[in-house]
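Possible regression after last week's pipeline update?

I re-ran a chain I had predicted before the update to compare outputs. Posting the input and the new output here so someone can diff against the archived version. Not blocking, just want to make sure nothing changed silently.
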Amino acid sequence: MLWYAKEHERRVRGRIGEFRLAALNADKGWHELDLAPLFGQWIVSQPWFERAARRPATLSTVIGQFEAAVADRVRLTLTACGPNDILALTGVASLFGLIRAQDLVRRVTDSTQVPGRLLLAFPGVHRDGIYRMLDARDGYNYLAVPIPSADVV
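New output (post-update):
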C-alpha cells in the first residue's frame, strides 16, 4: 500500500513515473492500471445507459456489475505480469462511493494469484495496521506493507 494524505493525490499521481523508474532500475517489471476512468468507460458502454441517465437513482442497482467489471479488468492486467513485476493501481479514490477498495482487492486476490506485487496507491490514513480511504470510511486491515508518503511535498 502506498498510502498518502488525500490532499497529495495529484502529486502522487504526477510522480508515479518515478516509482516506475525505480522499479525498472531494480530490475522489476512495471504495469499500471488507472482506475479513475473506468466507471465512465463502463457506464457509457452499457446498453441501458440512456435510460439510466434519465433515472440516475437506479444506478445503485448496477454497482455490483461495475465492481465485477473492475475486478475483471485488474485480473486481465495481472495476466501480463510475471513473478518479478509490480502492478500499480492508481485512481482508487475515484471508486469512493461506488465500491470499496477492500472489496476490489479481496475479489481479485480470492480468485487470482498475484504473480508479483500489487501496489495500491491509497489516499487516506494508516493507523495501527488499519487503512481508511479518504479518512472517511471504517478502516480495513489489508495485511499490506505500508509505504508512507512523509517525503511527498
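Follow-up from reviewer: compared with the archived run. The beta strands are 2-4, 29-34, 85-90, 117-127, 130-133. Marking as no regression found.
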